């Protein structure tokens, strides 16, 4: 196991809590990671937007869920780019596709975005082929304009994807990120920018470089962070989510972003939900807790919140996302990362209404 010397971090707090975060924008309505999806989330009342970053061949930070472009762009229909298709091992898995780090930004700009889940989201798929790939620069400029126009500060939660793998190819994400944040003047604790990753290593590296809050993402308990697995470290996300693990996370991060099953899991047979102690354990370490990803479709909801399945409804039918949001708020989470920010905002306001609390703009 590798021993890492960690800098001491000054605690930072969220500007809005409980916050609603538009996951990849309003990605239940528009193709994910497009400026239109982000603007829609902001119009729906989201306090923050969430985005994922990969890097182009010329070192530009591009907004995509993963470096493989096959599922979210029209690159497969571009004969001129057919020769860029390749097979490689990413995070221990063999992947065949077209990868962002093989294309310069000029070529990435020619692509058009498509819906990742057209069967579940046909309305979003209706926009296929219309919208370009965005960069982090594009998003930060858009957020600054929207914040000014709407008279409220809009947060940006940035997830760094496959950081260790990108670094191994000579394209370190931390270098490009720090330069971009400073160029836009947002590397400050008050900028409403947060940086997240599933990989502890990149967050530990950034802890001494940036002034914005850092969030350790936590996947399901039995899975392992890719960087730790590559280094032969046996720890799982369950280990990081334990009280001892959270005490270590607190040394380099300001919060955790947990898969919702780590906060409340289905009881056996889908009969109710079983809350965990994660929120209390994290708060004891002065770590904030965001939960991901909250989606309205029955396909993604825990069984107690699915609706209409006994009547033959398709998995795309919407269940009781509001009820799930209220449960998580009762458990004390600080942020809700969701594909349907309008539904989450409505549920939050309903939950706050009885005590007359309003979330500050």
Automatic annotation (TrEMBL):
Species this protein is from: Nocardioides kribbensis
Protein name, as recorded: glycerophosphodiester phosphodiesterase
Domain GP-PDE intervals: 18-348
Catalysis: reaction(s): a sn-glycero-3-phosphodiester + H2O = an alcohol + sn-glycerol 3-phosphate + H(+)
Protein family (similarity comment): Belongs to the glycerophosphoryl diester phosphodiesterase family.
Keyword Signal in annotation: yes
Enzyme Commission number, as recorded: 3.1.4.46
Keywords of this entry: Glycerol metabolism, Hydrolase, Signal
């Amino acid at each position: 196991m590798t021993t890492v010397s960690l800098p001491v971090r000054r605690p930072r707090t969220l500007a809005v809590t409980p916050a609603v975060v538009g996951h990849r924008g309003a990605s239940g309505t528009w193709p994910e990671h497009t400026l239109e999806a982000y603007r829609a989330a902001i119009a729906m009342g989201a306090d923050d937007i969430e985005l994922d970053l990969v890097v182009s061949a010329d070192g530009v930070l591009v907004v995509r869920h993963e470096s493989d472009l096959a599922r979210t762009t029209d690159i497969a229909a571009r004969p001129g780019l057919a020769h860029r298709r390749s097979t490689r091992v990413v995070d221990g898995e063999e992947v065949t596709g077209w990868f962002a780090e093989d294309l310069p930004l000029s070529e990435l700009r020619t692509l058009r975005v498509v819906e990742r889940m057209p069967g579940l989201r046909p309305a979003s798929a209706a926009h296929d082929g219309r919208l370009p790939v965005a960069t982090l620069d594009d998003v930060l400029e858009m957020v600054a304009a929207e914040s000014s126009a709407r008279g409220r500060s809009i947060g940006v939660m940035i997830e760094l994807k496959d950081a260790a793998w990108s670094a191994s190819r000579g394209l370190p994400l931390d270098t490009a990120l720090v330069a971009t944040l400073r160029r836009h003047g947002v590397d400050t604790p008050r900028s409403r920018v947060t940086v997240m990753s599933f990989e502890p290593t990149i967050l530990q590296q950034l802890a001494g470089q940036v002034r914005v809050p850092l969030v350790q993402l936590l996947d399901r308990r039995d899975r392992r962070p890719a960087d730790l697995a590559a280094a032969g470290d046996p720890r799982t996300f369950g280990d990081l989510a334990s009280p001892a693990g959270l005490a270590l996370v607190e040394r380099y991060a300001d919060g955790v972003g947990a898969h919702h099953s780590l906060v409340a899991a289905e009881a056996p047979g889908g009969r109710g939900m079983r809350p965990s102690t994660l929120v209390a354990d994290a708060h004891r370490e002065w770590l904030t807790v965001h939960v991901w990803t909250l989606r309205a479709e029955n396909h993604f909801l825990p069984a107690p919140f699915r609706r209409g399945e006994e009547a033959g409804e398709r998995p795309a039918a919407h269940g009781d996302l509001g009820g799930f949001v209220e449960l998580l708020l009762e458990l004390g989470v600080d942020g809700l990362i969701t594909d349907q920010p309008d539904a989450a905002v409505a549920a939050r306001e309903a939950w706050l209404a009885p005590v007359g609390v309003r979330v500050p703009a």
